[in-house]
Amino acid sequence: MPKRFKVNKEKCLGCGICMVTCPGATELKEDGKAMVIDQEKLRKCGGEDVCPYGAIEKISNNQSK
């Protein structure tokens, strides 16, 4: 099963670095926090390494989205 990722809203600063580093993989929601919109693109960009603040986290196989 391919890796899947989520944004930890408590760690997300809404800085947009993830959108610059990996265009099309994340977007900012109305609350100013990022959300993953394309898992495949995010995997290709490096997944959790895209966010310098550690807000993008790998979802374990037994964890829901």
TrEMBL record:
4Fe-4S ferredoxin-type domain segment(s): 3-31
Annotated Gene3D superfamilies: 3.30.70.20
Lineage: Bacteria, Candidatus Nealsoniibacteriota
Superkingdom of the organism of origin: Bacteria
GO molecular function: iron-sulfur cluster binding; metal ion binding
Protein name: Ferredoxin
Keywords: Iron, Iron-sulfur, Metal-binding
